Amino acid sequence: MNDKTIEEAVKQVEITKNKDGRPFGKGKPKHRLTAKKTAFISNVAKGMSPSDAYKNAYNVRTNNKGSINSTANKIMKDPLVSSKLNEALEVNIEDAKVARTYVIRELLKHSQQSSDALAIRSLELIGRSVGMFTDKVETKDTTVSTERLKKELDDTLKEFDENFVQSSNKIN
């Protein structure tokens, strides 16, 4: 295409406009974060499922789970909501790291300065936090060879046939 045909094509494109004359469509301005969306983000960041967060933030009266899930997912896909939610979750993760570090330091301090029982308990809790004391579950391997299964099936069928022949002889 040459430059004149491109310019002509651009001139033929109609721009859709709002009532106030502003263009809308793909490049519409970002919307603001409403109070309900802020509450939704807060609820999800606290650990609620998106559906529960939606019901709580928007005071939903319907019990239609499909409608609730659909709307909650639409809100989750909102770019502004998802970016704010990611920021909130990053803060929660940082808070959890700080809290974990503090607790382990305090437990370590108690294990060094306290009575034997408290020191042992503190060391136990530190050990659990790093996965030292996990319950081990024993599993028994009960695999059976196909040959053994075939033999047991043949024996059972022979026994069934013998019982069937005996019962039919009794009837005659």
- Characterize the biggest β-sheet: none
Contiguous runs where pLDDT drops below 50 for at least 5 residues: none
Tally of contiguous helical segments: 7
Share of helix, binned: 55-70%
> Which of globular, elongated, flat, extended, rod-shaped describes the shape?
flat
Mean pLDDT: 78
Distance between the termini: 98 Å
Estimate the strand proportion.
under 5%
Number of strands: 0
Q: Which value, in Å, is the CA radius of gyration? A: 35 Å
Succession of helices and strands = HHHHHHH
SS-derived structural category:
mainly alpha
Q: Would you write up a description of this structure?
A:
This protein has 172 residues and is mainly α. The chain has a domain at 33-129. Helices cover 69% and strands 0% of the residues. The chain contains seven helices and no strands. The chain has helices at residues 3-12, 35-45, 50-58, 65-77, 79-113, 116-129, 146-171. Helix 2 runs antiparallel to helix 3 (50-58), helix 2 packs parallel to helix 5 (79-113) and helix 3 (50-58) packs across helix 4 (65-77). The longest helix has 35 residues, at 79-113. The radius of gyration is 35 Å and the shape is flat.
